[in-house]
């Protein structure tokens, strides 16, 4: 059901931001809508999601109205901090948002539109499992204003899907893509590599299948073993083998090569797009430190330098809102050193990189060695920006340590 929430200071019952906080009305504003429901819990998943047997006191059919209560609360909080801004991006994540009827998703989106406004050219994304997307679902989402469908493909190989506890058949991905295209939606597909028993040939087959779908955007994430998950327990008991770091590195390089050959450009370590227009603007807002409000149980937000997060369980979330209280469980205002680390950590992952001028003295001194090691692009660094090479993307954590120690 997701990892533990961070520690932080209490949030006032009315959800007010720290005294003196002012929002920048000209800055982009993202909205994240968390839908925490899944039919089956995947063995690797550490997200804050719940199957029907785990809801205990929360109802899926009441969820849209509950979340809209937080939308109203957010409007009051932001008005006190300087006013409302229209959303430049809206992202329905999960969980599986398409487990809810499209009408419920439309109602949540209408609530955001009515309360904050939504930019005319806003990117509005819905995550979906392939077997929940039909022509009718895609058409109804498009009619509500959704512009983009992010489809959880993960693999095209049946035994890899089984190792990940995914419930869809490989063929259902193509059906979902066709439905999305028919409704006029942009399409992104998500892949995971390094599953137990997955070979490099299995991964190549998945890459070939993903490219053949001709999506606008593709994400490829290395499988990470999170404590407390079913997969972590299986590895600890010796039932399956842990992902091999060298094999995952080979898989990443193969993905980058094949996506480049198919006309995709990397713009973040794990993300590729056909062109700049099809980059995920919502996720870029996270990586560049923009403002967003995350609605729903366990959702995180960032407003004008303050980070806060909601209680995790849907029942606790609903109870807070029913009592007229903020569902926020805690908050923090990172200090200068924490903001520097975060800036390097996030901006170094994107193609535009970060400014050398943003680094402290020791970090700047590390630049020459990182160029020599082939981890950052030399000519770009000499022009004042840190941009990772392909090898640097494989060792991004080591680059961040060198730039911040």
Strand/helix succession: EHEHEHEHHEHEHHEEHEEEHEHEHHEHH
Helix content: 25-40%
Q: Specify Rg, calculated over alpha carbons.
A: 21 Å
Counting structural domains, the number is 2
Number of helices: 15
Give unreliable regions as ranges: none
Please outline the major beta sheet: 9 strands, mixed
Shape, per Cα inertia axes: globular
In round numbers, the mean pLDDT is 96
Walk me through this protein's architecture:
The protein is of the alpha/beta class. It folds into two domains: 29-287, TIM Barrel, CATH 3.20.20.70; 335-405, Arc Repressor Mutant, subunit A. It has 15 helices and 14 strands. The chain has helices at residues 63-80, 102-115, 135-144, 158-163, 170-182, 200-212, 230-236, 245-261, 281-287, 314-322, 336-347, 361-372, 378-382, 390-394, 396-404, and strands at 29-35, 87-94, 118-128, 148-154, 186-193, 217-222, 265-268, 271-273, 291-295, 300-303, 306-310, 328-332, 354-355, 385-386. The strands form three sheets. The chain has a nine-stranded mixed beta sheet, sandwiched between helices. A three-stranded antiparallel beta sheet has the order 10-11-12, with no helix packed on it. Helix 6 (200-212) runs parallel beside helix 8 and helix 11 (336-347) packs antiparallel against helix 15. The chain starts with 28 loop residues before the first strand and ends with a helix. The mean pLDDT is 96.
């Amino acid at each position: 059901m997701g990892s533990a929430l961070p520690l932080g200071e209490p949030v006032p019952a009315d959800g007010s931001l720290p005294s003196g906080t002012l929002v920048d009305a000209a800055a982009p504003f993202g909205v994240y809508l968390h839908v925490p429901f899944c039919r089956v819990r995947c063995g690797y998943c550490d997200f804050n999601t719940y199957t029907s047997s785990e809801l205990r006191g929360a109802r899926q059919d009441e969820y849209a109205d509950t979340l809209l209560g937080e939308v109203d609360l957010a409007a009051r909080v932001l008005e006190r901090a300087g006013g409302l801004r229209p959303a430049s991006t809206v992202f329905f994540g999960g969980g599986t948002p398409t487990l809810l009827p499209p009408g419920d998703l439309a109602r949540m989106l209408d609530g955001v539109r009515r309360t904050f406004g939504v930019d005319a050219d806003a990117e509005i994304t819905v995550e979906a499992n392939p077997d929940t997307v039909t022509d009718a679902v895609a058409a109804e989402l498009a009619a509500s204003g959704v512009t983009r469908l992010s489809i959880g493909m993960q693999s095209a190989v049946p035994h890899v899907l089984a190792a990940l506890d995914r419930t869809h058949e490989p063929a259902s991905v193509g059906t979902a893509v066709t439905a999305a295209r028919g409704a006029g939606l942009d399409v992104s597909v998500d892949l995971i590599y390094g599953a137990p028993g997955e070979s490099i040939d299995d991964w190549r087959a998945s890459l070939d299948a993903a490219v053949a779908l001709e999506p606008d955007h593709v994400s490829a994430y290395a499988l990470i073993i999170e404590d407390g998950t079913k997969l972590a327990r299986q590895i600890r008991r010796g039932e399956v083998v842990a992902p091999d770091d060298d094999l995952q590195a080979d898989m990443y390089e193969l993905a980058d090569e094949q996506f480049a050959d198919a006309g995709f450009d990397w713009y973040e370590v794990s993300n590729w797009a056909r062109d700049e227009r099809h980059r995920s603007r919502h996720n870029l807002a996270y990586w560049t430190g923009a403002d967003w409000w995350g609605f729903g149980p366990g959702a995180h937000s960032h407003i004008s330098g303050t980070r806060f997060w909601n209680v995790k369980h849907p029942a606790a979330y609903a109870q807070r809102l029913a009592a007229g209280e903020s569902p926020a469980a805690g908050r923090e205002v990172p200090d200068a050193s924490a903001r520097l680390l975060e800036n390097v950590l996030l901006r170094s992952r994107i193609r535009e990189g970060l400014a050398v001028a943003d680094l402290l003295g020791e970090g700047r001194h590390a630049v020459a060695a990182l160029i020599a090691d082939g981890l950052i692009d030399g000519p770009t660094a000499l022009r004042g920006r840190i941009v990772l090479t392909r090898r640097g993307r494989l060792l991004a954590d080591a680059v961040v340590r060198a730039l911040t120690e």
